[in-house]
Specification:
By secondary structure, this protein is α/β, with parallel strands linked by helices. It is built from eight helices and seven strands; from the N terminus they run E-H-E-H-E-H-E-H-E-H-E-H-H-H-E. Strands 3-2-1-4-5-6-7 form a seven-stranded parallel sheet, sandwiched between helices. The structure holds nicotinamide-adenine-dinucleotide.
């Protein structure tokens, strides 16, 4: 029960890494604010979380809209009165080669993967400063080093590293730790959109020779959200089967 008595908000938690993280947190005793734009998926996920015996508040909100994020935090505070953990997980891809990438593809990915992360981080930091502390975990990607067809996505995932370190420096004196997990390929719907041949190429340089599971990623996030990482801030942890060495 690493998170007993704590309240955690996980964005993009209707499925995939976000849902697995919320489940791992619930098993450790945290109350959960579960966010997504997918209302149906969110309802199902909330039932699964409640079945684990914890309080769960599902909030439909688009993290890239400040007004939605403000409403989300006010609902969370009305219900729980505190926030200890934020996992900035919501993210999308709109892949295309540079010369074909449209303005819409570019802006949408920047809005969700970067601006949304900033809005949620800023809102959480305001509450946590008043709380006396907190933990924020942002989700980047191995794609932050650059990836063919992902000029938009790679840019946001590199930017999340800068945002993490800036926030970690600014918020440390307020007892708020800010860290980042950078996943390699993880078996979620996002990965299922990747063509088989591209996936084979992705796996080839991974020393562990496989993709990761959402639970493996969630356990890394749990470490950064728990007291077990109490002297760690501004860190980027690769959860990628050793891909970073390739
Ligand atoms: N799966 C991978 O291989 C992988 C690798 C590296 C990084 N990541 C990152 O991990 C995070 C989660 O990825 P996943 O694989 O679970 O993806 P996923 O597509 O399975 O789930 C993402 C969830 O975010 C929600 N979402 C999208 N836009 C949103 C918005 N504006 N507001 C609120 N919710 C929104 C979606 O509805 C969905 O439920 C993302 O940030 C992604 O970039 C994933």
């Amino acid at each position: 029960m690493e998170l007993k008595g704590m309240v955690a908000l996980v964005t993009g938690a209707a499925q995939g890494i976000g849902k697995a993280t919320a489940e791992v947190f619930a098993k450790e005793g945290a109350s959960i604010v579960l966010n997504d734009i997918n209302e149906e998926g969110l309802k199902k996920a909330a039932k699964d979380i409640e079945a684990l015996g914890v309080d769960c508040l599902p909030v439909v909100a688009n993290t890239s809209l400040l007004s939605d994020v403000e409403k989300m935090y006010s609902q969370a505070m009305d219900k729980f009165g505190r926030l200890d953990i934020l996992v900035n997980n919501a993210g999308i891809t709109r892949d295309s080669l540079l010369h074909k990438m449209t303005e819409e593809q570019w802006k949408l990915v920047i809005d969700v993967n970067l601006t949304g992360v900033f809005f949620c981080l800023q809102g959480a930091a305001k509450i946590m400063r008043a709380n006396g502390g907190g933990r924020i975990v942002n989700i980047s990607s191995v794609a932050r080093y650059g990836n063919v067809g992902q000029a938009n996505y790679s840019s946001t995932k590199a930017a999340v590293v800068g945002l993490t370190r800036t926030a970690a420096k600014e918020l440390a004196r307020k007892n708020i730790r800010v860290n980042c997990v950078a996943p390699g390929p993880i078996n979620t719907e996002m990965l299922q959109a990747v063509p088989e041949k591209v996936l084979e190429k992705l796996i080839q340089p991974i020393p562990l020779q496989r993709v990761g599971t959402p639970e493996e990623l969630a356990n890394t996030v749990l470490f950064l959200a728990s007291d077990k990482s109490s002297y760690i801030t501004g860190q980027i942890i690769n959860c990628d089967g050793g891909w970073f060495m390739a």
